[in-house]
């Protein structure tokens, strides 16, 4: 069984010999950039540099590979958001919310895949698929439709609209969900094996479970039904109260942070035939902890029966590579590999 077969079998709920290790959000880490010779900001826009950094997954001991860059802003960018310029240790970020004052002009963009970084992503997919073939799973990722909507309007304002202007919430989502659905299907056409929706703006830290169930769950359910491959949903913070709702959207997997209860999440998810990714802490353990801290937290995630051993969120650029390598080391020791 090769790495891709192990990954895809586990995602389908089949038995595998040991837990796959990787990162299902972003791993644009400075130590990896330096090691492979592909640094931001070039690796944000140049297909070859982007692919070289993506192939740096092996430096961390990971077992699957990311396409589509190192941030979660590509959809927001083509819909009109102004982005801040990246540095080696800073991702592209939302600088201006173009529809904060009015929704006039908000529409599905013409020639979507000729805009923004999509032409570069297309070339990156070609490079990765030529290099990896059917041996390693490759995934695409972008912000989800809810987070894209928050980026267009401003998160605080969009959350207020859920109470005061629900029709305007739906007006924005009608556009973002169509675009993100098409982007996911485009990624599968380029060779992606699965697709990640990063939805940090739908976190329980920002909205109630009731609001999530009212707006986000039906939106995601509709989208996933139209997507031609498996979808993994990543949401930050303590997601315990919404994990049942996340698993009812039709996704193949959910990605959770360390604030969520892995053991409970696995139990709930498996009842709904959903797999769980996570959840070694990124902001604390991997970024600031010792290698031993990382090793022990990884063992805890395995004991709590995670399906895919991964950081709980996108890895901070300044995280030491030796810390990331402890995830694979702990997995290998746990399963007595090698």
The SSE order reads HHHHEHEEHEHHHEHEHEHEHHEH
- Can you tell me the residue ranges where pLDDT is under 50 for at least 5 consecutive residues? none
Q: Given the C-alpha coordinates, what overall shape results?
A: globular
CATH topology: TIM Barrel
CATH class term: Alpha Beta
Number of domains: 1
Count of alpha and pi helical runs = 15
- What is the β-strand count? 9
Mean pLDDT: 97
Any idea what the radius of gyration is?
19 Å
Into which percentage range does the β-strand content fall? 5-15%
Share of helical residues:
40-55%
The CATH architecture name reads Alpha-Beta Barrel
Side by side, the strands of the main sheet go 1-4-5-6-7-8-9
Give the end-to-end Cα distance, rounded to a whole number of Å.
16 Å
Q: Main sheet?
A: 7 strands, parallel
Structural category: alpha/beta
Question: Could you describe the 3D structure shown?
Answer:
With 338 residues, the chain is α/β, with parallel strands linked by helices. It has one domain: Alpha-Beta Barrel (TIM Barrel). 46% of the residues lie in helices and 12% in strands. It is built from 15 helices and nine strands. A seven-stranded parallel sheet has the order 1-4-5-6-7-8-9, sandwiched between helices. Strands 2-3 form a two-stranded antiparallel sheet. A hairpin with an 8-residue loop joins strand 2 (82-84) and strand 3 (93-96). Helix 4 (47-54) packs across helix 6. The protein is globular and about 60 Å long. The model has no long low-confidence stretch (mean pLDDT 97).
């Amino acid at each position: 069984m090769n790495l891709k077969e192990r990954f895809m079998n586990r995602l389908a709920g089949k038995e595998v010999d040991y837990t796959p290790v990787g990162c299902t959000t972003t791993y644009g880490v400075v130590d990896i950039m330096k090691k492979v010779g592909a640094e931001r900001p070039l690796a944000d826009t140049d297909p070859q540099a982007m692919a070289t950094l993506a192939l740096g997954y092996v430096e961390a001991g990971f077992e699957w590979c990311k396409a589509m860059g190192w941030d979660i802003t590509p959809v927001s960018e083509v819909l009109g958001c102004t982005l801040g310029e990246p540095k080696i240790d800073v991702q592209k970020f939302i600088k201006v919310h173009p529809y904060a004052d009015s929704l006039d002009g908000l529409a599905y963009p013409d020639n979507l895949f000729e805009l923004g970084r999509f032409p570069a992503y297309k070339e990156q997919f070609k490079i990765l698929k030529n290099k990896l073939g059917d041996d390693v799973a490759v995934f695409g990722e972008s912000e989800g439709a809810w987070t894209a909507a928050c980026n267009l309007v401003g998160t605080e304002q969009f959350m207020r609209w859920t109470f005061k202007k629900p029709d305007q919430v739906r007006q924005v989502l009608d556009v973002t969900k169509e675009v993100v659905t098409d982007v996911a299907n485009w990624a599968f056409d380029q060779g992606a094996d699965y697709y990640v929706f990063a939805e940090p703006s739908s976190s329980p830290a920002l909205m109630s479970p009731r609001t999530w169930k009212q707006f986000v769950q039906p939106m995601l359910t509709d989208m996933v039904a139209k997507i031609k491959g498996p979808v993994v949903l990543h949401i930050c913070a303590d997601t315990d109260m919404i994990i049942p709702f996340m698993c009812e959207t039709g996704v193949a997997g959910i990605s959770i942070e360390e604030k969520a209860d892995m053991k409970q999440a696995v139990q709930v998810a498996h009842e709904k035939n959903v797999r769980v990714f996570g959840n070694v802490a990124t902001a604390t353990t991997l970024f600031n902890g010792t290698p031993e801290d990382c090793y022990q937290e990884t063992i805890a995630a395995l004991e709590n029966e995670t399906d895919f051993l991964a950081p709980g969120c996108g890895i901070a650029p300044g995280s030491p590579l030796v810390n990331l390598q402890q995830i694979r080391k702990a997995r290998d020791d746990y399963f007595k590999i090698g």
